[in-house]
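INTERNAL AUDIT FORM
Audit reference: QA-55
Scope: verify that the stored structure record matches its stored sequence.
Auditor: D.O.
Record contents follow.
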Amino acid sequence: MNNYIALEIHDLANKLKGYNVLFNYRLSNLCVKAEPTALMPVTVLVADTEYNLEEVANIMRPDDFSFDVYPKNPNNLQEMINGIFDAHPEFKMELKTDKAEQEGAEDKHHAFYTMPPVDKDRRKLLNEAAKTFHKECMVNLDVTYAELQARLVEPYSKMSPLDIDEARKGFKNIYDKAREECDKILQLKQNEIEEGYQRYLTEFNDRYDEPEADDNEMEISHDAEIEALFS
């Protein structure tokens, strides 16, 4: 395999992987469980300076569905809460008091966040958003692969049929694996959403007795509400 084709294969693999990484990151912000990556977009404004959340707070994950967020400086508690709310208004927040260990010292406070329950409406919204992001990822994979094929017309004209066949197989293998990975990422998220929904039914069974619509009947939505909650 000549150097040009080897470089193109490496470049294609990196580009397609990047689209899948972005897709996975976007799904992590459709919070069913308390995913640490969901806090990556959070910024906190302190004294007219913007900080990443981890710069001003210590984060703990006591279980799969909650975060404890402790401000490093107690004076920045409200700014920290504001920053998290801006990124994830759907999180349920409760202010916790941490009793002082020494007599006479002041009590401190931190924010405790729980993920919203996956009820019928949220289940549908999450699935629609996941499918929308999946479609966008697939389009990016397809367009990048198609653009490559057009770019290879001239190089192929200077190669032997055997080398062309080897190159095409190499590109197709990377493309097929990227599409399979994209589908796998979606399936894992859909499984997580369904697990969250079943958890909701178990915990709130006495509040819920409506028949469920078939997921296959749901259509992908581009409603502005999805973008507002999950962008």
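Auditor finding: record pair retrieved intact. The mean pLDDT is 88.
Action required: none
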